[in-house]
Specification:
The structure is a homodimer.
Chain A: E1 3-8, E2 13-18, H1 28-39, E3 53-57, E4 71-76, E5 83-88, H2 92-98, E6 101-107, E7 115-120, E8 125-130, H3 138-149, E9 154-157, H4 160-163, E10 171-174, E11 180-183, H5 188-194, E12 197-202, H6 215-231, H7 233-242, H8 247-253, H9 275-284, E13 288-291, E14 302-306, E15 312-315, H10 319-328, H11 334-347, H12 351-363, H13 372-383, H14 388-393, H15 396-404, E16 411-412, E17 415-416, H16 426-434, H17 447-450, H18 466-483, H19 490-495, H20 497-511, H21 517-537, H22 550-553, H23 567-571
Parallel strand pairs in A: 1-6, 7-12
Antiparallel strand pairs in A: 1-2, 3-4, 3-6, 4-5, 7-8, 9-10, 9-12, 10-11, 13-14, 14-15, 16-17
């Protein structure tokens, strides 16, 4: 039977609890946000003892359901000041699910300056003092932890950035190849660092697979579900072939590829960093163009990218990273960006926040636009080592703007705006403004409908229909994030009715319940409202549901459009 | 007749306007806050072209009224994100008043990277490109500007910190000796820097004194008023003798002297930095123990402090600076603190924000507690030169906390908490929490009644009566700040009825109107409500009217008291 595990860093004790009745039907983001909202005082210091970091697999994690292995990480965010859920692939979600751990809650704060690790097995949860791996990067850490236990245990960790409580620090999760995936956004690695937990290792040895209550019904639904992922052109062809980086050329063509710190929507060097170019480089150097971030992934949008020497350089090399270091920083050398990606994974910083930050830092004159080598050097020698400049850069785009007096700072709720210009792709702009997560494309990916014509088409340059689109997508995403599913199932879910019905069938078969489509929508709405209420109690207001001033005043080429929503139009997002 | 002068930095034009009917009875803070609230979009970027910086003398400035020469500086604050008024002595207020300039508004933003100065005479307002003094400190700047014009023109300027748009940057005002006074709080120097105005020089040559409409009535009221300043023990004896620094020993005795980044209420080295010690050092070295910050000052709480070599070291050497660099940073060498004060004046940073920031930076391990030489070195070589570390330190206590992951960060609305521990002096804590200005002792100086028994006595350690006390003092202060009067007239005003009546008589005689005491209270209330409404529209909420979490969780010795107001108790502040 599922349990909640608590790791108390104040008195270094652990506790196993039954799951509250109300939390039984929840997983992933629904559960992390419910626990944070119930137990964390909204006004607390995010790096103080009253914050909690919650890890939760999804409702279907550990079953044979395709793409069900994402892990949700939740807490009050030190970056946004609001509630946060960030999810990632890797092997941790499956291991927790197999161990019957519905959520692992790290709470309190160590009273001394020691570092600790947490080891979870089917028999015990142990807190141990850690000395050997303190200061180490994630790549080294994962290798050494797995060597220590003599097997590929799941690992959730922080790099040096998390130890230094930098606001860009992510929570890293080892993937099936012992490479690094990231719950990147919102500085959750700083929260784990504030608890002085360097890593959590999870050994699911001796546990059986998660068995659905109605195995036959589950198997049939899982088959249908998997087929819809294959049938949709985005999840079945585009993503497996080119990965998420297929978007560089698409967004450039659409004039929505934020370039040179959001001063243009097109990047002259787009071909050099595109998914098509990347695919060719990977194949040519013997990398892996098609790869899954977690066990059971069928979409396989990830990849392993080799350097010029034919050796591993990075993996999970996503569009948003390549856009950010590429177009937004005007770097057109994919190897420089790949090296930056590797270093970011290793020191443990969010590649979106860090890339947006470098765009602002370049505008401030800290380094020139286009200086890929400079970015890698600053990542390694400044951020990674916590020099004063590294501390500045590691504190995110908003802080760099404040420190250098830059007025063009693309953030919402102090979180960097990702890879789609909100003036030219207005639906995603509504998501950036309104999501309780701060600027986050994954919260309600209106790019699908604005640019990819998935789930219909809404003109990206017109305000018409965007708030409704973003609202519906944010609700649906909150529900999907609660299943533990990869968000990319949303592409077939938006176009192929059997995708969503089979997903619900799987959940029903897993727990022997009778959810309807309406129930799922209700779950999404409930999650959003819980998160919104937390943020309001934490001091965020309607004024924080706005894009920065410059988007309204500076037309972005080539369409020369501005951000033109009224406050009233935006606030209608919450009418549900 | 009074006029409003506008300096538009976008098109480098100036304009002289009649005063709006509604603004005729306003001066000082009432006028700066009214103009900012009417003309600055609350959600604008504080360092962008839509913010405005307003300079305004008070209602009685330029007359023979004692202590009437403060200048108010207003804008949206880049530090707090809310409205701001900060006032200072110096000669600028009197010069503006004699020129009939009720407010000087700097608006827009230069489109190029040049620096400018503004020169104001009775004949013209001129904007000139400035090259010679860019990068210069305030001391050098004032000397050179006065040399350039061949006379002691009034000077309002920014130092290097303001040029770099640091959030600790103040607006500096030359005093009668061409030394430096500061409108310190809220980063208003960064606003002037964002307009690329290095200094404003004001030459009042050829203008007569400001003549009250009813000269005889004015003269009699001014006499009575001046007598009350002499009669009160604080304004007549304590302040002239020991300056504001008389408070070190008093607050230490009361257990409310924040020490070692607000972890204790008493400082072992208090005697070494006390007003009494300082007085002896000043006399012994041939300094000036009793000195006025502006023409017409009768209280003379300021002083000129010489170094060991008997030469000028600093002036306007206030309790809050000495407390902050002293007790809060555990520095017990008054010469080190004096040198720090000189450097802060020269580079143009707020000595309160900077001192609170150093306390946080010391807790973060940036330098050791007690390292006075290190503080001076970092001020001069890091902040003054804008190195990465200097950028961090120059961005204020809140940002230093964010960058180093410190949880004990004494700020409200991101502005450093001054020299009175809110747990042990609860009335001032209410002011810190509730003032629209952010943490600011001068907004409602409950220390007077809690500690000095001026205006009655309210037990500093009890919650009883504190909200009402703070509310009344905030209302009264908003009114006093609007007259252009030195705040220290509040001491006699609280205890000697003739003080307030003669002040009102002077205003009535000056303008030939019939204000009552109630009108003055209404003015104070109106100013506060205008400011509060601006802040709400800018995105500040009730949650920003709170002290940081640690004040509730950490008892402060020696009384071992915590901050224990409920949200409801605090919010009652606004019930008027």
């Amino acid at each position: 039977m599922d349990r909640i595990v608590r790791v108390n860093m104040t008195d270094l004790t652990t506790r196993i609890e039954a799951v509250l009745e109300a939390w039984v039907p929840l997983g992933g983001r629904a559960l992390t946000s419910s626990i944070v909202a119930a137990e964390v005082p909204p006004a607390c210091h995010a790096l103080g003892p009253n914050n909690k970091l919650v890890l939760a697999p999804g409702l279907l994690t550990g079953t044979a359901a395709a793409n069900s292995g994402r892990i949700s990480v939740g807490a009050k965010s030190p970056l946004t000041g609001g509630i946060k859920e960030s999810n990632a692939g890797g092997t941790a979600a499956k291991a927790l699910a197999k161990l019957g751990i519905k959520a692992l809650v790290v709470e309190g704060a160590a009273k001394d300056d020691k570092w600790y690790s947490v080891h979870v097995t089917k028999d015990a949860i142990t807190i141990q003092e850690e000395t050997e791996l303190v200061g180490k990067g994630n790549y080294c850490l994962v290798n050494q932890v797995q060597a220590r236990y003599g097997k590929p245990v799941a690992v959730v960790s922080i790099g040096p950035a998390g130890e230094m409580k930098m606001l860009t620090a992510n929570v890293s999760v080892a993937d099936p190849e012992s490479h690094i995936r990231s719950a990147g956004r919102g500085g959750l690695g700083a929260v784990l660092g504030s608890k002085r937990v360097k890593f959590i290792s999870i050994d699911d040895s001796g546990t059986p697979p998660v068995m659905p209550k109605n195995a036959a019904k589950f198997k049939e639904a899982a088959r249908v579900f998997a087929q819809t992922l294959l049938d949709h052109p985005v999840s079945g062809q585009g993503l497996p072939t080119y990965g998420t980086n297929v978007l560089v050329n698409i967004l450039n063509e659409a004039g929505g590829l934020p370039t040179r710190n959001f001063t243009s929507g097109q990047f002259a060097g787009h071909d050099k960093i595109s998914g098509e170019t990347m695919h060719d480089i990977i194949v040519q150097r013997g990398g892996t163009p098609t790869h899954g971030c977690h066990p059971g992934c069928q979409i396989q949008c990830s990849q392993i990218y080799h350097g010029k020497d034919g050796k591993y350089l990075t993996s999970g090399f996503e569009y948003e990273t390549i856009w950010g270091m590429g177009a937004d920083c005007c770097i057109d050398d994919l190897d420089d960006i790949a090296e930056a990606d590797h270093v970011m994974d290793d020191i443990g910083v969010d590649s979106i926040e860090t890339a947006v930050m470098f765009g602002v830092a370049m505008e401030a004159g800290v380094l020139p636009f286009g200086d890929g080598k400079g970015v890698v050097r600053m990542l390694r020698d400044e951020i990674g080592k916590g020099t004063p400049l590294g501390r500045i850069l590691g504190s995110g785009a908003g802080n760099v703007g404040r420190i250098y007096g830059v007025t063009r700072v693309p953030v919402v709720k102090n979180q960097g705006i990702p890879a789609y210009d909100p003036r030219a792709v207005k639906g995603i702009g509504v998501t950036y403004a309104m999501s309780p997560m701060g600027a986050d494309h994954t919260s309600g990916y209106a790019v699908a409908t604005n640019i990819l014509s998935v789930g219909g088409h809404v003109d990206p340059l017109s305000k018409t229909g965007q708030v409704e689109l973003a609202r519906n997508l944010n609700i649906a995403t909150a529900a999907i994030d609660s299943t533990g599913m990869c968000l990319f199932i949303a592409f077939p879910a938006l176009d192929i009715p059997a995708c969503l019905t089979s997903l619900i069938d799987m959940i029903n078969a897993r727990f022997d319940i009778n959810l309807t489509g309406d129930d799922v929508t209700t779950l999404g709405k409930t999650v959003l409202k819980i998160e919104h209420a937390f943020n309001i109690a934490a001091g965020l207001t309607k004024e924080h549901d706005r894009l920065p001033e410059f988007f309204s005043g500076e037309p972005v080429p080539p369409h020369n459009v501005v951000w033109d929503f009224t406050p009233e139009e935006l606030d209608a997002f919450w009418d549900f």
